[in-house]
Design goal:
The protein has 254 residues and is of the alpha/beta class. It contains 10 helices and 11 strands. Helix 6 runs parallel beside helix 7 and helix 6 runs parallel beside helix 10.
Length: 254
């Protein structure tokens, strides 16, 4: 049993929680809580850590299960009331090309410079529910392996294909060459989103929470769409906007 926060494994968990660069270098991340750990595909689990007083279910896996003192678990936990179980998880990989090659008419989401981890996690979870084919993110979008994002996905992280890209313009052009109609979400000078036909292969570009879609990316879209609103509201939360258009696409596809 690990009884000290000076233990090398404990120090690594803390770095995995707090430092994106360490997560990238190790190709690992941390997921905490009974439900979230149960959602992890067994082959992606590297290690499971449980508090000495944990009495819940431990997933069936070949990964090592390591006990730690309750006080130590409290130090590595990212929640106010720890459930006593967390896992170190191997990152999964996917490419933009694999996402764009989908043979279904399910839409693709492009996320440009999205900054809020909670927003990103909500979009990942929503995307699974709406039957989205995959998510392609600009390299300066929030880290999908941030603990807050991982929690927000509620397990969809392991089922929704996603990829970061170094050149979003290039990937959008690839999408268009593949016959995908690209729509950019913007609050002004655009067609109402429900006037478009999403039964064909479609992609939605969702931009930064405050700045929206950049003009360099906007000009690549086949169509600009907006969500009509009343009152003095100028725009919606990025995750909410993505939800509305993706579920309209799902409705149209039947």
């Amino acid at each position: 049993m690990i009884s000290s926060t000076d233990n090398a494994k404990i120090k690594d968990i803390i770095k995995l929680k707090t430092k994106k660069r360490f997560r990238d270098e190790a190709s690992l991340f941390v997921s905490e809580g009974e439900v979230l750990v149960s959602e992890i595909p067994p082959e992606l689990i590297k290690e499971i850590y449980i508090s000495e007083d944990y009495r819940g279910k431990i997933p069936e896996t070949e990964a090592e299960v390591i006990k730690v003192a309750p006080g130590v678990f409290g130090k590595i936990s990212d929640t106010v009331t720890p459930q006593g179980i967390m896992a170190v998880v191997k990152k999964k990989t996917c490419t933009p090309e694999e996402i764009l090659a989908t043979e279904t008419n399910a839409p693709v989401i492009f996320l440009e410079r999205l900054q809020d981890p909670g927003n990103l996690g909500t979009i990942v979870r929503m995307a699974e529910a709406a039957g989205v084919a995959g998510i392609i993110m600009s390299s300066d979008t929030a880290d999908i392996y941030n603990p807050k994002t991982v929690r927000s996905t509620m397990g969809s992280l392991y089922r929704m294909p996603f990829s970061y890209c170094g050149d979003m313009s290039f990937e959008i052009k690839n999408a268009k060459e593949a016959g995908i109609v690209v729509y950019a979400s913007t609050p002004a000078d655009a067609k109402d989103f429900y006037e478009c036909d999403y039964t064909k292969k479609s992609a939605f570009i969702i931009g930064n929470e405050s700045a929206g879609v950049s003009e360099d990316i906007m000009v690549l879209a086949d169509e600009r769409i907006k969500i009509p609103m009343e009152g003095q509201v100028e725009s919606l939360n990025a995750a909410m906007a993505a939800t509305i258009v993706c579920f309209e696409a799902k409705r149209q596809r039947g």
